[in-house]
Design a protein that fits this description.
Chain lengths: 270, 279, 262
């Protein structure tokens, strides 16, 4: 019963990933084909979720949007992890001024919301999926650095680290063979949370036009386009909004569930 | 006189797989008696104590009977059990550092136990707290009452924990390895303290440990637990001189290091009792 | 020449004169001969574990010097410590935290063999699988234990894995820091017998830290009693046990509970 949250989270996340994968090979209708005669159709048959202002099938656009969402999320979180984890582990293992520097740098990065970075990048090289991913990724580095550092500090108090040093194991090998495997679980939880944040950030950025340019559909963009029809066809906003909400919910439930799953295990190992 | 604590066919299981860790334990404890419960890690001794206090985890299944002063405890809701804890029965845990809240002065924590069960003014409560801190042998009890746990030594902390357990003059005190984490000189003084304090209050004691030598300092009777079963019950003298179960004989042999000639091989439990391959 | 020479070693935490400053080890000198079985006895705060950490270069003294086999090992760079690391191995107190929970026993035990530092400096066995089998047998563990994780084993078994790991690189010196304190009393005898037998069979020098004089008396031939960072008393273990000179040693002995019938 307590695991219900975890399973719901898994199901929701799996649905989103499935949607993204399916969209690579098939969508019910062409997401780019404008059909002036079919505009603003209600949900039902033949368009399961209705059509938008250009007569394009909403479900198809939603599926393609899932692709961007997942893609941006995965790349941004990977970027954040690749940047933040080594910094955090270094700070945790070395302590002293190295740790101070890492913490200050991460504080500075924390001060820049993804939005600001995205605007900067867009101004510099033009808005695109790439700039969105970079902005969100960089903005998420501090979270990973801090979590990695905290978890590393705990690992460093364990005797097996001392045993490794007494065995002549190099610091590098200790970080890879002893620290990383033992902080991986905590990082997984953080990745889940960061993924959710990334999705929201991407939606916000593409709503503002600072991410993937049209005509490629993204959920945020769909929300933006739905504004015009808010009174005439509210489902325009409903479907992408729901998609965003459920994805983030799913990731949060997954993260929480993972964390709870870890907790009793940690106690058992004691 | 009827027993203070009567445990009959106590079975404790965990999780959905109903993994049983106590297989029908039965024993009784008279008022004022000290009973030792001896066993290794995993023998089920701690879960038995937690079952009596009603402190087991949510996924624990308890069946059988636990009667304290004639009242059945198995099946009671936490709201019915909570008033008994700290009042009728109390517990002294192994780790004094985790038994005390690091963010609160110890005097307040002791007072909390008092005020949960009695309606007293704060001035009166403080007086009682300082009184009992002095009773457990703490020098300058007023200063200790205002101190935070980290400012006290391990021995001082354990005295505070004993004070908390005794302040409401309970009928039953359960001690779960109370001295295992302490230095040997500190352990000796805490055991003496427990001895005197239990006498002063007239409380019964269920003393849990893996160390027969420690248990023998305090208890007249002892139960030996192995893998969820009680394999021996008897007085300290019986167990010392003529243990029945081979496992008990092994425990006695390993508890008497002083009887072994130095340089000789130390006797192990396996010399007397072949354990399951699991170990 | 002594195997170990500890020369007026002190270890201070925090800056001298400040309130947080602690003198964990205070001007301690001792020497250990090859083949000696030394016990270091003390309670918490005695400095015994800190001393032993410094002897294995896992911590540095704030003053004084430590020499192993004639070479200075305090304040050296890690890369120069190959000789020490391949000759001196450590068994820690807590079997729950001294084994990496994410590594299998086989990998844990052979870790010292895979260290480049050790391979370069000592005659460390090169056939890992053979040495693993050998060393598991010598600690009375079945060979299939190599595939298990630490949490699947009991405390006594985990401690034997720790001993196996210490023996894998064929060290000269075995330092055991309270090897049985975290184990149930009934399990201790097994591990102590094992330590004694292995030390005898491999001709090792043993330094065993403990808070229990009766345990040390059975395993060690000489003992040092420490209190608050200083040496209170030292001598042959039997002599110190029977005829303690220092009042603190007498207090220690008196405090040890014996199984008695009132």
């Amino acid at each position: 019963m307590r695991r219900a949250g975890l399973w719901i989270g898994i199901v929701l996340v799996a649905l989103v990933i499935l949607a993204a994968l399916v969209s690579l090979v098939w969508t019910p209708y062409d997401p780019l084909q404008v059909q002036p005669t079919q505009t603003l159709q209600p949900a039902g048959w033949p368009h399961l979720l209705g059509t938008d202002g250009f007569g394009i099938d909403i479900l198809s656009r939603l599926l393609i949007g899932a692709r961007t969402t997942v893609f941006v999320g995965v790349v941004a979180v990977s970027l954040a992890a690749l940047g933040g984890v080594p910094l955090g582990v270094l700070a945790g293992m070395r302590g002293g001024w190295v740790s101070e520097i890492v913490l200050r740098v991460s504080d500075i990065l924390y001060a820049f919301p993804a939005l600001l970075l995205a605007i900067l990048l867009a101004a510099a090289v033009g808005a695109s999926t790439l700039t969105a991913m970079a902005a969100i990724g960089i903005a998420s580095i501090p979270a990973f650095a801090r979590v990695a550092r905290a978890a590393t500090l705990i690992v460093m108090t364990q005797d097996y680290i001392l045993a490794a040093r007494a065995s002549g194991t190099s610091r590098w090998t200790i970080s890879v063979r002893h620290v990383l495997p033992n902080i991986a679980a905590v990082l997984g939880v953080q990745a889940s949370v960061s993924f959710g944040i990334a999705i929201l950030a991407e939606a916000a950025l593409s709503y503002l036009g600072l991410a993937t340019p049209p005509p490629t559909p993204t959920w945020g963009r769909m929300l933006h386009d739905a504004q015009t029809y808010i009174f005439t066809s509210p489902i325009q906003a409903l479907w992408p909004g729901l998609a965003i909400a459920l994805s983030v919910l799913g990731l949060n439930l997954l993260g929480d569930g993972l964390r709870d799953h870890l907790d009793p295990r940690l106690r058992e190992a004691a | 006189m009827s027993p203070l604590l009567e445990v009959t066919d106590l079975r404790i299981a965990f999780g959905r797989s109903r993994r049983e860790v106590a297989h029908g334990i039965s024993f009784s404890l008279e008022p004022g008696e000290r009973l030792g419960l001896i066993g290794e890690s995993g023998s089920g001794k701690t879960v038995t104590a937690l079952a009596v206090m009603g402190l087991l985890a949510e996924n624990a299944y308890v069946s059988g009977s636990i009667r304290l002063a004639g009242r059945e405890l198995v099946g009671l809701r936490d709201s019915e059990l909570a008033p008994l804890r700290g009042d009728l029965m109390s517990m002294v845990f192994q780790e004094p550092m985790t038994a005390l809240d690091p963010t609160m002065p110890v005097g307040r924590q002791v007072a909390e136990v008092l005020l949960l069960h009695q309606h007293l003014g704060h001035g009166v409560a403080r007086g009682r707290v300082i009184e009992i801190l002095a009773e457990v042998g703490l020098e300058d009890p007023a200063r200790v009452a205002d101190a935070y746990p980290h400012a006290l030594s391990g021995g001082q902390r354990q005295r505070v924990v004993v004070a908390m357990a005794l302040i409401n003059r309970p009928d039953l005190v359960i001690c779960d390895e109370p001295t295992t984490a302490l230095d040997v000189t500190v352990q000796a003084t805490v055991l003496n303290l427990l001895d005197a304090a239990l006498d002063a209050v007239g409380a019964s004691c269920l003393f849990i440990s893996h160390d027969l030598a420690v248990v023998s300092q305090l208890c007249e009777r002892v139960l030996v637990m192995l893998d969820g079963d009680i394999v021996e019950q008897g007085t300290m003298a019986q167990v010392f001189n003529a243990p029945n179960h081979p496992y008990t004989r092994g425990l006695v042999a390993t508890a008497r290091l002083d009887a072994v000639t130095p340089g000789e091989r130390l006797p192990t439990v396996e010399d007397f009792y072949a354990r399951q391959a699991r170990r | 020449m002594s195997l170990y020479e500890v020369d007026r070693v002190s270890r201070r935490y925090g800056r001298a004169g400040t309130s947080g400053s602690v003198l964990a080890v205070d001007d301690v000198s001792l020497s250990v001969e090859p083949g000696q079985r030394l016990g270091i006895v003390g309670e918490s705060g005695s400095g015994k574990s800190t001393l032993v950490r410094m002897m294995t270069a896992l911590d540095q003294p704030t003053s004084g010097q430590i020499r192993f086999a004639g070479e200075v090992v305090s304040h050296r760079m890690e890369r120069d410590l190959g000789g020490l690391r391949s000759s001196v191995q450590l068994v820690f107190q807590d079997p729950r935290s001294s084994l990496n929970p994410r590594m299998r026993v086989g990998a844990i035990v052979t870790e010292p063999l895979r260290s480049r530092l050790l391979r370069v400096s000592g005659d460390v066995p090169t056939d890992h699988r053979a040495r693993l089998a050998e060393v598991l047998e010598s600690v009375d563990l079945p060979p299939d234990v190599a595939d298990r994780f630490p949490h699947e084993l009991s405390g006594g078994q985990r401690q034997r894995v720790a001993i196996a790991r210490a023996l894998a690189p064929k060290p000269q010196v075995l330092i055991a820091d309270e090897p049985v304190s975290a184990l149930d009393v009934s399990v201790r005898a097994q591990v102590l017998n094992l330590v004694r037998d292995l030390v005898a069979a491999n001709g090792l020098t043993l330094i065993m830290v403990s808070h229990d004089l009766t345990v040390v008396r059975h395993v060690c031939d000489s003992v040092i009693v420490m209190r608050r960072g200083r040496i209170e008393e030292q001598g042959p273990s039997e002599q110190v046990y029977r005829d303690p000179q220092s009042p603190y040693t007498r207090e220690l002995l008196a405090a040890i509970p014996t199984f008695r019938v009132t």
